[in-house]
DNA sequence: ACCACCATGTAACAGGTTACATGATTAA
DNA sequence: TTAATCATGTAACCTGTTACATGGTGGT
């Protein structure tokens, strides 16, 4: 029984992108930003920190490519071991944890804020969710069929964003209602 | 113009709980777990690390209480400065960032997995979301009116969890459909 | 003349987790 | 006698961010 290699989600993301071909850190950053990027885009410093580790651990190899007109770059290629590590990470059952968003704390301690401020917070959440919906709907069009399952992650984002707008609408009304009638109508 | 004190969300959470009365680290941990806990429960080591910092920065004071039958404890009380810092944190407009859940990566790279594994992942997400819904519905009953706005955070959790189940249901069907007809019906 | 793109990295910091360590009291 | 409650903390580790640093090429 071979030892299972533990990798982090970010390492899995990079290895996953590398299954699509040899890439540089620069390439990976852009691939992460454009393709799956709305849900997983590590800082570039993180990417450049992780890549050498992948090589050290045997999950990828790198080679220098000297260019005439551009800076020298490192191209990374996933190894067999890297594929195995990725595979076992992908096969692990996913864990979901409910959100840990600042807005929840601000609402929870709402008694300490003017209701108007609370409402403006809720409206901001709604505005951001609406903007995301537009962005994702556009993405859904352009990226049609580029990857076999990418659309399902976009739908995840859409469901999430729609849930946020629903919640924001309900919450806004509820706060306004309590302003008028602060007593609980039980 | 007085300098604004920057505090983290966890510090805000602890200060918020302290507005309800003098508490020990132990009390705070339990308060965090039970009241708002489903969306913000720091590890206890984090709580015990943050509390002395709050004192150092002038946001809280502490006093030792020697007990006969129990270990000596530190009770923390929020200061005027602490209230100001909390207030300005609460008034800052909230930022939302869409989710960064491992399931999304596993779906995104779904081509690397057997469809059956993918489906089992989706089912697990659904199961966890359903469990959360039950938990929150129960919470909604018991905690009725304990805090003025706590119920709105519970509804946030419910909207989120319902969105997850909707997504999971749609996704499961979609994957099954693609198993039968892998060509895209555009 | 200026800006965007290509390309890699370091340094400093922030925020978080799990596991370990200790030890009395009280209820089942 | 066994387990939960009360009560505080340390140590090791991991993951992540922003800001800084460098410098040529190609398009407007």
Instruction: Name the chain pair whose interface involves the most residues.
Output: A-B, 70 and 70 residues
Helix content of chain A: 55-70%
What Rg of chain A do the Cα atoms give? 22 Å
Count of helix runs of chain A: 7
Characterize the biggest β-sheet of chain A: 2 strands, antiparallel
What is the mean pLDDT of chain A?
A: 92
- Overall morphology of chain A: elongated
Unreliable stretches of chain A = none
For the secondary structure, the number of strands of chain A is 2
How many angstroms separate the termini of chain A?
Answer: 61 Å
Oligomer: homodimer
Strand-pairing-aware structural class of chain A:
mainly alpha
Strand-residue fraction of chain A?
Answer: 5-15%
Which sequence of strands runs across the widest sheet of chain A?
Answer: 1-2
N-to-C series of helices and strands of chain A: HHHEEHHHH
């Amino acid at each position: 029984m071979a030892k299972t290699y533990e990798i982090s989600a970010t390492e899995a993301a990079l290895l996953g992108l590398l299954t699509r071909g040899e890439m540089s850190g620069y390439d990976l950053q852009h691939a992460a930003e454009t393709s799956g990027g709305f849900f997983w885009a590590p800082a570039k410093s993180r990417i450049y920190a992780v890549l050498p580790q992948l090589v050290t651990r045997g999950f990828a190899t790198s080679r220098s490519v000297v260019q005439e007109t551009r800076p020298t770059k490192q191209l990374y290629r996933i190894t067999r071991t890297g594929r195995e590590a990725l595979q076992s990470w992908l096969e692990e059952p996913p864990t979901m944890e409910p959100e840990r968003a600042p807005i929840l704390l601000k609402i929870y301690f709402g008694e300490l804020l003017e209701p108007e401020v609370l409402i403006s917070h809720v409206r901001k959440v709604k505005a951001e969710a609406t903007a995301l919906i537009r962005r994702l709907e556009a993405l859904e069009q352009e990226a049609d069929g580029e990857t076999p399952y990418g659309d399902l992650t976009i739908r995840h984002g859409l469901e999430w964003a729609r849930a946020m707008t629903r919640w924001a609408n309900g919450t806004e009304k509820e706060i306004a209602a309590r302003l008028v009638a602060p007593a609980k109508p039980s």
